[in-house]
Amino acid sequence: MSFLVVGLTHRHTPLDILERAAVTPAELDNTLARVLAHEQVTEAMILSTCNRVELYTNVEKFHPGLDAVVEWLSDRLDTSADELAKYLQVSYDEDAIEHMMRVASGLDSMIVGEPQILGQLRTAYLDATDREAVGRQLHALSQHALRVGKRVHSDLGMHEVGRNIASVGVDAAGSAAGGLSGKSALVVGAGAMATLAAGALRDQGVSQLQIVNRSVEKAEALAERFDGEATEDLGAALGRADVVVTAMGSSPGFVTEELARAAGATVLVDLALPKNVTVAAAELANISYIGMEKIRERAQSLELAVDGARADDVIAEEVAAFVARQRSASVAPTIAALRARAKEVIDSELDRLRHRIPDVDARAMSEIEYAVERVVDKMLHAPQVRVRESAGTPNGEAYAEALRALFELGEPPTRDAAASGVGVSARNLTNGTPG
Description:
Layout: E1 2-9, H1 15-21, H2 28-36, E2 41-48, E3 52-59, H3 62-77, H4 81-85, E4 89-92, H5 94-104, H6 116-130, H7 136-155, H8 165-177, E5 184-188, H9 192-203, E6 208-212, H10 216-225, E7 229-230, H11 234-240, E8 243-246, H12 257-261, E9 266-270, H13 279-282, E10 287-290, H14 292-300, H15 308-356, H16 362-390, H17 396-406, H18 422-429
Parallel strand pairs: 5-6, 5-8, 6-7, 8-9, 9-10
Antiparallel strand pairs: 1-3, 1-4, 2-3
Helix pairs in contact: 5-7, 5-15, 6-7, 6-18, 7-15, 8-9, 8-14, 15-16, 16-17
Protein backbone atom coordinates (compact mmCIF):
# COMPACT_ATOMS: atom_id res chain seq x y z
CA MET A 1 0.00 0.00 0.00
CA SER A 2 1.15 3.54 -0.73
CA PHE A 3 0.21 7.14 0.00
CA LEU A 4 -1.76 9.04 -2.63
CA VAL A 5 -2.73 12.72 -2.43
CA VAL A 6 -5.21 14.10 -4.95
CA GLY A 7 -6.49 17.63 -4.77
CA LEU A 8 -7.33 21.04 -6.09
CA THR A 9 -5.33 24.02 -4.83
CA HIS A 10 -4.98 27.75 -5.31
CA ARG A 11 -1.97 27.10 -7.56
CA HIS A 12 -3.89 25.49 -10.43
CA THR A 13 -7.61 25.77 -9.76
CA PRO A 14 -10.06 28.63 -10.41
CA LEU A 15 -11.82 29.81 -7.29
CA ASP A 16 -15.31 28.85 -8.49
CA ILE A 17 -14.21 25.21 -8.89
CA LEU A 18 -12.55 25.22 -5.47
CA GLU A 19 -15.76 26.59 -3.99
CA ARG A 20 -17.87 23.82 -5.55
CA ALA A 21 -15.42 21.16 -4.37
CA ALA A 22 -15.26 22.41 -0.76
CA VAL A 23 -16.39 19.85 1.82
CA THR A 24 -18.32 21.25 4.77
CA PRO A 25 -18.28 19.55 8.21
CA ALA A 26 -21.84 18.36 7.65
CA GLU A 27 -20.75 16.48 4.51
CA LEU A 28 -17.69 14.83 6.00
CA ASP A 29 -19.30 11.57 7.17
CA ASN A 30 -20.85 10.72 3.81
CA THR A 31 -17.81 11.88 1.84
CA LEU A 32 -15.33 9.74 3.76
CA ALA A 33 -17.68 6.76 3.70
CA ARG A 34 -18.03 6.97 -0.06
CA VAL A 35 -14.29 7.20 -0.69
CA LEU A 36 -13.54 4.33 1.67
CA ALA A 37 -16.23 2.18 0.06
CA HIS A 38 -13.85 1.62 -2.85
CA GLU A 39 -11.79 -1.53 -2.29
CA GLN A 40 -8.59 0.19 -3.39
CA VAL A 41 -8.76 2.92 -0.72
CA THR A 42 -7.91 1.73 2.78
CA GLU A 43 -7.50 5.05 4.63
CA ALA A 44 -8.61 8.61 3.91
CA MET A 45 -8.72 12.13 5.29
CA ILE A 46 -9.96 15.36 3.70
CA LEU A 47 -8.36 18.78 4.00
CA SER A 48 -10.81 21.44 2.84
CA THR A 49 -9.81 25.10 3.29
CA CYS A 50 -10.33 28.34 1.41
CA ASN A 51 -7.33 27.51 -0.78
CA ARG A 52 -7.40 23.74 -1.20
CA VAL A 53 -9.53 20.62 -1.25
CA GLU A 54 -7.25 17.60 -0.91
CA LEU A 55 -7.85 13.93 -0.25
CA TYR A 56 -5.02 12.15 1.57
CA THR A 57 -5.32 8.39 1.14
CA ASN A 58 -3.57 5.09 1.49
CA VAL A 59 -4.27 2.90 -1.53
CA GLU A 60 -3.56 -0.67 -2.61
CA LYS A 61 -2.41 0.35 -6.12
CA PHE A 62 -1.80 3.71 -7.75
CA HIS A 63 -3.99 3.70 -10.86
CA PRO A 64 -7.12 2.06 -9.35
CA GLY A 65 -6.77 4.29 -6.27
CA LEU A 66 -6.42 7.41 -8.39
CA ASP A 67 -9.45 6.39 -10.47
CA ALA A 68 -11.51 5.98 -7.29
CA VAL A 69 -10.62 9.44 -5.95
CA VAL A 70 -11.06 11.17 -9.32
CA GLU A 71 -14.44 9.49 -9.75
CA TRP A 72 -15.60 10.91 -6.41
CA LEU A 73 -14.32 14.38 -7.25
CA SER A 74 -15.79 14.30 -10.76
CA ASP A 75 -19.20 13.36 -9.38
CA ARG A 76 -18.96 16.10 -6.77
CA LEU A 77 -18.19 18.74 -9.39
CA ASP A 78 -20.45 17.20 -12.03
CA THR A 79 -17.65 17.29 -14.59
CA SER A 80 -15.65 14.76 -16.57
CA ALA A 81 -12.37 13.30 -15.39
CA ASP A 82 -10.68 14.71 -18.50
CA GLU A 83 -11.89 18.23 -17.70
CA LEU A 84 -10.85 17.84 -14.08
CA ALA A 85 -7.37 16.56 -14.96
CA LYS A 86 -6.00 19.98 -15.93
CA TYR A 87 -6.60 21.27 -12.40
CA LEU A 88 -5.65 18.22 -10.34
CA GLN A 89 -2.48 17.99 -8.31
CA VAL A 90 -1.49 14.34 -7.76
CA SER A 91 1.31 13.11 -5.49
CA TYR A 92 2.21 9.47 -4.90
CA ASP A 93 4.40 7.57 -2.49
CA GLU A 94 7.41 9.70 -1.41
CA ASP A 95 6.07 12.72 -3.32
CA ALA A 96 2.85 12.44 -1.31
CA ILE A 97 4.82 12.29 1.93
CA GLU A 98 6.78 15.40 0.95
CA HIS A 99 3.60 17.21 -0.12
CA MET A 100 1.88 16.65 3.21
CA MET A 101 4.92 17.94 5.08
CA ARG A 102 5.14 21.04 2.87
CA VAL A 103 1.45 21.72 3.41
CA ALA A 104 1.81 21.35 7.19
CA SER A 105 4.76 23.75 7.11
CA GLY A 106 2.87 26.48 5.24
CA LEU A 107 5.27 26.19 2.28
CA ASP A 108 2.47 25.32 -0.15
CA SER A 109 0.13 28.04 1.10
CA MET A 110 -1.09 31.04 -0.86
CA ILE A 111 0.68 33.17 1.76
CA VAL A 112 3.92 31.29 2.32
CA GLY A 113 4.64 30.76 5.98
CA GLU A 114 1.12 31.27 7.32
CA PRO A 115 0.66 29.03 10.37
CA GLN A 116 -3.12 28.47 10.16
CA ILE A 117 -2.78 25.52 7.80
CA LEU A 118 -1.10 23.52 10.55
CA GLY A 119 -4.22 23.76 12.70
CA GLN A 120 -6.44 23.01 9.70
CA LEU A 121 -4.46 19.88 8.89
CA ARG A 122 -4.63 18.80 12.52
CA THR A 123 -8.42 19.23 12.47
CA ALA A 124 -8.72 17.22 9.25
CA TYR A 125 -6.65 14.43 10.80
CA LEU A 126 -8.63 14.35 14.04
CA ASP A 127 -11.96 14.47 12.18
CA ALA A 128 -10.94 11.48 10.05
CA THR A 129 -9.60 9.66 13.11
CA ASP A 130 -12.88 10.15 14.96
CA ARG A 131 -14.67 8.56 11.98
CA GLU A 132 -12.23 5.62 11.95
CA ALA A 133 -11.07 6.58 8.45
CA VAL A 134 -7.40 6.83 9.48
CA GLY A 135 -5.37 3.67 10.05
CA ARG A 136 -1.76 2.93 10.90
CA GLN A 137 -0.20 4.44 7.77
CA LEU A 138 -1.98 7.80 7.63
CA HIS A 139 -1.77 8.03 11.40
CA ALA A 140 2.03 7.79 11.24
CA LEU A 141 2.32 10.26 8.36
CA SER A 142 -0.07 12.80 9.88
CA GLN A 143 1.70 12.72 13.23
CA HIS A 144 5.07 13.18 11.54
CA ALA A 145 3.81 15.97 9.23
CA LEU A 146 2.39 17.90 12.18
CA ARG A 147 5.72 17.68 13.98
CA VAL A 148 7.53 18.78 10.82
CA GLY A 149 5.20 21.76 10.45
CA LYS A 150 6.01 22.90 13.97
CA ARG A 151 9.73 22.36 13.38
CA VAL A 152 9.82 24.37 10.14
CA HIS A 153 7.94 27.27 11.72
CA SER A 154 10.27 27.22 14.70
CA ASP A 155 13.58 26.69 12.88
CA LEU A 156 12.87 29.25 10.17
CA GLY A 157 11.18 31.80 12.41
CA MET A 158 8.11 31.72 10.18
CA HIS A 159 5.88 32.73 13.08
CA GLU A 160 7.54 36.15 12.79
CA VAL A 161 6.29 36.65 9.23
CA GLY A 162 2.92 37.71 10.65
CA ARG A 163 1.00 37.32 7.40
CA ASN A 164 -2.13 35.28 6.92
CA ILE A 165 -5.23 35.33 4.74
CA ALA A 166 -7.21 37.33 7.29
CA SER A 167 -4.56 40.02 7.68
CA VAL A 168 -4.16 40.37 3.91
CA GLY A 169 -7.94 40.67 3.57
CA VAL A 170 -8.06 43.36 6.23
CA ASP A 171 -5.16 45.18 4.55
CA ALA A 172 -7.16 45.15 1.31
CA ALA A 173 -10.18 46.51 3.19
CA GLY A 174 -8.03 49.34 4.55
CA SER A 175 -6.95 50.25 1.03
CA ALA A 176 -10.56 50.22 -0.20
CA ALA A 177 -11.80 52.30 2.74
CA GLY A 178 -8.99 54.83 2.75
CA GLY A 179 -7.68 53.49 6.04
CA LEU A 180 -9.43 51.81 8.95
CA SER A 181 -8.41 54.10 11.78
CA GLY A 182 -11.53 55.32 13.56
CA LYS A 183 -13.82 53.07 11.49
CA SER A 184 -16.47 50.66 12.80
CA ALA A 185 -15.95 46.97 12.02
CA LEU A 186 -18.00 43.80 12.22
CA VAL A 187 -16.65 40.23 12.29
CA VAL A 188 -19.10 37.42 11.58
CA GLY A 189 -17.75 34.20 13.06
CA ALA A 190 -15.68 33.26 16.10
CA GLY A 191 -13.29 30.59 14.84
CA ALA A 192 -9.59 30.77 14.02
CA MET A 193 -9.98 32.93 10.90
CA ALA A 194 -12.42 35.29 12.63
CA THR A 195 -9.99 35.64 15.53
CA LEU A 196 -7.19 36.58 13.15
CA ALA A 197 -9.45 39.09 11.43
CA ALA A 198 -10.46 40.69 14.73
CA GLY A 199 -6.81 41.06 15.70
CA ALA A 200 -5.90 42.55 12.32
CA LEU A 201 -8.78 45.04 12.52
CA ARG A 202 -7.65 46.22 15.94
CA ASP A 203 -4.09 46.53 14.66
CA GLN A 204 -5.42 48.74 11.86
CA GLY A 205 -7.01 51.05 14.44
CA VAL A 206 -10.77 50.42 14.16
CA SER A 207 -12.61 52.29 16.89
CA GLN A 208 -15.56 49.93 17.28
CA LEU A 209 -15.56 46.15 16.86
CA GLN A 210 -18.71 44.03 16.79
CA ILE A 211 -18.81 40.22 16.83
CA VAL A 212 -21.72 38.08 15.58
CA ASN A 213 -21.70 34.29 15.77
CA ARG A 214 -24.16 31.40 16.05
CA SER A 215 -22.74 30.64 19.48
CA VAL A 216 -23.29 33.72 21.62
CA GLU A 217 -20.80 32.43 24.19
CA LYS A 218 -18.01 32.25 21.60
CA ALA A 219 -18.92 35.68 20.27
CA GLU A 220 -18.72 37.12 23.77
CA ALA A 221 -15.35 35.44 24.39
CA LEU A 222 -13.90 36.85 21.17
CA ALA A 223 -15.35 40.29 21.85
CA GLU A 224 -13.84 40.33 25.32
CA ARG A 225 -10.45 39.36 23.93
CA PHE A 226 -10.36 42.30 21.52
CA ASP A 227 -12.33 44.85 23.54
CA GLY A 228 -15.34 44.53 21.28
CA GLU A 229 -19.08 44.00 21.59
CA ALA A 230 -20.98 40.75 20.98
CA THR A 231 -24.41 41.08 19.39
CA GLU A 232 -27.05 38.69 18.06
CA ASP A 233 -28.65 41.16 15.63
CA LEU A 234 -26.76 40.68 12.36
CA GLY A 235 -28.89 43.16 10.40
CA ALA A 236 -28.41 45.97 12.90
CA ALA A 237 -24.69 45.21 13.20
CA LEU A 238 -24.30 45.41 9.41
CA GLY A 239 -25.99 48.78 9.38
CA ARG A 240 -23.48 50.16 11.87
CA ALA A 241 -20.32 48.78 10.27
CA ASP A 242 -17.97 50.47 7.83
CA VAL A 243 -16.06 47.22 7.34
CA VAL A 244 -17.47 43.69 7.56
CA VAL A 245 -15.41 40.49 7.63
CA THR A 246 -17.23 37.17 7.25
CA ALA A 247 -15.56 33.90 8.26
CA MET A 248 -18.28 31.26 8.56
CA GLY A 249 -17.04 28.25 6.59
CA SER A 250 -20.17 26.19 7.18
CA SER A 251 -22.69 28.92 6.25
CA PRO A 252 -22.51 29.55 2.49
CA GLY A 253 -24.46 32.50 1.13
CA PHE A 254 -25.92 33.80 4.38
CA VAL A 255 -25.20 37.42 3.38
CA THR A 256 -28.03 37.85 0.89
CA GLU A 257 -28.79 40.78 -1.41
CA GLU A 258 -31.56 41.93 0.92
CA LEU A 259 -29.29 41.82 3.95
CA ALA A 260 -26.47 43.61 2.14
CA ARG A 261 -28.75 46.44 0.97
CA ALA A 262 -29.37 47.34 4.58
CA ALA A 263 -25.65 47.59 5.28
CA GLY A 264 -25.12 51.00 3.76
CA ALA A 265 -21.77 51.87 2.17
CA THR A 266 -19.65 48.97 3.36
CA VAL A 267 -16.39 47.24 2.56
CA LEU A 268 -17.14 43.53 2.80
CA VAL A 269 -14.33 40.96 3.16
CA ASP A 270 -15.36 37.33 2.58
CA LEU A 271 -12.82 34.87 4.01
CA ALA A 272 -14.97 31.75 3.65
CA LEU A 273 -15.13 28.98 1.07
CA PRO A 274 -17.87 28.28 0.10
CA LYS A 275 -18.47 32.04 0.06
CA ASN A 276 -20.57 33.64 2.79
CA VAL A 277 -21.70 36.38 0.40
CA THR A 278 -24.00 35.73 -2.54
CA VAL A 279 -23.06 37.03 -5.99
CA ALA A 280 -26.06 39.37 -5.99
CA ALA A 281 -25.00 40.88 -2.66
CA ALA A 282 -21.38 41.28 -3.77
CA GLU A 283 -22.44 43.19 -6.89
CA LEU A 284 -24.51 45.83 -5.08
CA ALA A 285 -23.45 49.43 -5.62
CA ASN A 286 -23.16 50.07 -1.88
CA ILE A 287 -20.81 47.10 -1.36
CA SER A 288 -17.08 47.10 -2.01
CA TYR A 289 -16.53 43.34 -2.11
CA ILE A 290 -13.19 41.68 -1.33
CA GLY A 291 -13.27 37.94 -1.87
CA MET A 292 -10.60 35.27 -2.18
CA GLU A 293 -9.70 36.29 -5.74
CA LYS A 294 -8.69 39.79 -4.66
CA ILE A 295 -6.92 38.42 -1.60
CA ARG A 296 -4.99 36.02 -3.86
CA GLU A 297 -3.91 38.90 -6.10
CA ARG A 298 -2.75 40.93 -3.13
CA ALA A 299 -0.93 37.95 -1.57
CA GLN A 300 1.01 37.32 -4.77
CA SER A 301 2.53 40.79 -4.52
CA LEU A 302 3.87 40.20 -1.02
CA GLU A 303 7.53 39.50 -0.45
CA LEU A 304 7.91 37.21 2.51
CA ALA A 305 11.22 36.59 4.24
CA VAL A 306 11.19 32.77 4.16
CA ASP A 307 14.44 30.90 3.54
CA GLY A 308 13.20 28.54 0.84
CA ALA A 309 16.49 26.64 0.52
CA ARG A 310 16.66 25.99 4.25
CA ALA A 311 13.01 24.94 4.29
CA ASP A 312 13.64 22.50 1.43
CA ASP A 313 16.57 21.00 3.34
CA VAL A 314 14.45 20.45 6.44
CA ILE A 315 11.64 18.84 4.42
CA ALA A 316 14.08 16.56 2.56
CA GLU A 317 15.66 15.49 5.85
CA GLU A 318 12.27 14.73 7.41
CA VAL A 319 11.02 12.83 4.36
CA ALA A 320 14.13 10.64 4.43
CA ALA A 321 13.70 9.99 8.16
CA PHE A 322 10.04 9.05 7.75
CA VAL A 323 10.69 6.78 4.74
CA ALA A 324 13.53 5.02 6.56
CA ARG A 325 11.29 4.40 9.56
CA GLN A 326 8.49 3.09 7.34
CA ARG A 327 10.85 0.80 5.43
CA SER A 328 12.19 -0.63 8.66
CA ALA A 329 8.66 -1.19 9.90
CA SER A 330 7.66 -2.86 6.64
CA VAL A 331 10.09 -5.78 7.19
CA ALA A 332 9.39 -6.10 10.91
CA PRO A 333 6.66 -8.76 10.34
CA THR A 334 9.09 -10.83 8.25
CA ILE A 335 11.81 -10.65 10.91
CA ALA A 336 9.31 -11.45 13.66
CA ALA A 337 8.00 -14.41 11.66
CA LEU A 338 11.56 -15.65 11.05
CA ARG A 339 12.40 -15.52 14.75
CA ALA A 340 9.13 -17.19 15.66
CA ARG A 341 9.82 -19.94 13.13
CA ALA A 342 13.30 -20.46 14.55
CA LYS A 343 11.95 -20.71 18.09
CA GLU A 344 9.35 -23.21 16.95
CA VAL A 345 12.03 -25.44 15.37
CA ILE A 346 14.37 -25.14 18.38
CA ASP A 347 11.61 -25.99 20.87
CA SER A 348 10.48 -28.95 18.78
CA GLU A 349 13.97 -30.42 18.38
CA LEU A 350 14.91 -29.92 22.02
CA ASP A 351 11.67 -31.53 23.12
CA ARG A 352 12.44 -34.53 20.85
CA LEU A 353 15.95 -34.73 22.33
CA ARG A 354 14.62 -34.78 25.90
CA HIS A 355 12.37 -37.73 25.06
CA ARG A 356 15.22 -39.63 23.35
CA ILE A 357 17.73 -39.14 26.22
CA PRO A 358 15.56 -38.57 29.31
CA ASP A 359 18.42 -39.34 31.72
CA VAL A 360 20.62 -36.40 30.65
CA ASP A 361 21.33 -34.15 33.62
CA ALA A 362 19.92 -30.63 33.85
CA ARG A 363 23.29 -28.88 33.47
CA ALA A 364 24.15 -30.72 30.28
CA MET A 365 20.69 -30.07 28.86
CA SER A 366 21.06 -26.39 29.62
CA GLU A 367 24.40 -26.26 27.74
CA ILE A 368 22.82 -28.07 24.78
CA GLU A 369 19.93 -25.59 24.68
CA TYR A 370 22.34 -22.66 24.82
CA ALA A 371 24.52 -24.05 22.05
CA VAL A 372 21.57 -24.75 19.75
CA GLU A 373 20.14 -21.26 20.28
CA ARG A 374 23.54 -19.66 19.54
CA VAL A 375 23.96 -21.66 16.34
CA VAL A 376 20.50 -20.64 15.13
CA ASP A 377 21.02 -17.00 16.12
CA LYS A 378 24.30 -16.88 14.19
CA MET A 379 22.71 -18.49 11.15
CA LEU A 380 19.82 -16.02 11.14
CA HIS A 381 21.86 -12.90 11.89
CA ALA A 382 22.93 -12.23 8.31
CA PRO A 383 19.44 -12.70 6.76
CA GLN A 384 17.93 -10.35 9.36
CA VAL A 385 20.55 -7.67 8.75
CA ARG A 386 20.24 -8.02 4.99
CA VAL A 387 16.44 -7.75 4.94
CA ARG A 388 16.62 -4.60 7.08
CA GLU A 389 19.28 -3.04 4.84
CA SER A 390 17.41 -3.86 1.65
CA ALA A 391 14.03 -2.60 2.88
CA GLY A 392 12.71 -0.02 0.44
CA THR A 393 15.38 -0.68 -2.20
CA PRO A 394 14.45 -2.00 -5.66
CA ASN A 395 15.35 -5.57 -4.55
CA GLY A 396 14.11 -5.23 -1.00
CA GLU A 397 10.64 -6.68 -1.50
CA ALA A 398 11.99 -9.60 -3.53
CA TYR A 399 14.52 -10.36 -0.80
CA ALA A 400 11.84 -10.37 1.89
CA GLU A 401 9.63 -12.62 -0.23
CA ALA A 402 12.51 -15.01 -0.82
CA LEU A 403 13.20 -15.14 2.90
CA ARG A 404 9.59 -15.97 3.65
CA ALA A 405 9.57 -18.67 0.98
CA LEU A 406 12.86 -20.27 2.09
CA PHE A 407 11.82 -20.49 5.71
CA GLU A 408 8.13 -21.19 4.98
CA LEU A 409 6.97 -18.13 6.87
CA GLY A 410 3.69 -17.67 5.02
CA GLU A 411 2.38 -14.45 3.49
CA PRO A 412 2.85 -11.08 5.27
CA PRO A 413 -0.30 -9.23 6.38
CA THR A 414 -1.68 -7.04 3.59
CA ARG A 415 -3.46 -4.59 5.82
CA ASP A 416 -2.93 -3.40 9.37
CA ALA A 417 -5.76 -2.30 11.58
CA ALA A 418 -5.48 1.10 13.20
CA ALA A 419 -3.64 0.91 16.46
CA SER A 420 -5.86 1.04 19.51
CA GLY A 421 -5.65 4.48 21.08
CA VAL A 422 -4.84 6.26 17.80
CA GLY A 423 -7.29 9.02 18.61
CA VAL A 424 -5.88 9.48 22.09
CA SER A 425 -2.28 9.69 20.93
CA ALA A 426 -3.27 12.03 18.12
CA ARG A 427 -4.95 14.44 20.47
CA ASN A 428 -2.11 14.25 22.96
CA LEU A 429 0.41 15.07 20.24
CA THR A 430 -1.46 18.10 18.95
CA ASN A 431 -1.94 19.79 22.31
CA GLY A 432 -0.64 23.31 21.93
CA THR A 433 -0.50 23.23 18.14
CA PRO A 434 -1.54 26.58 16.65
CA GLY A 435 -4.79 26.97 14.75
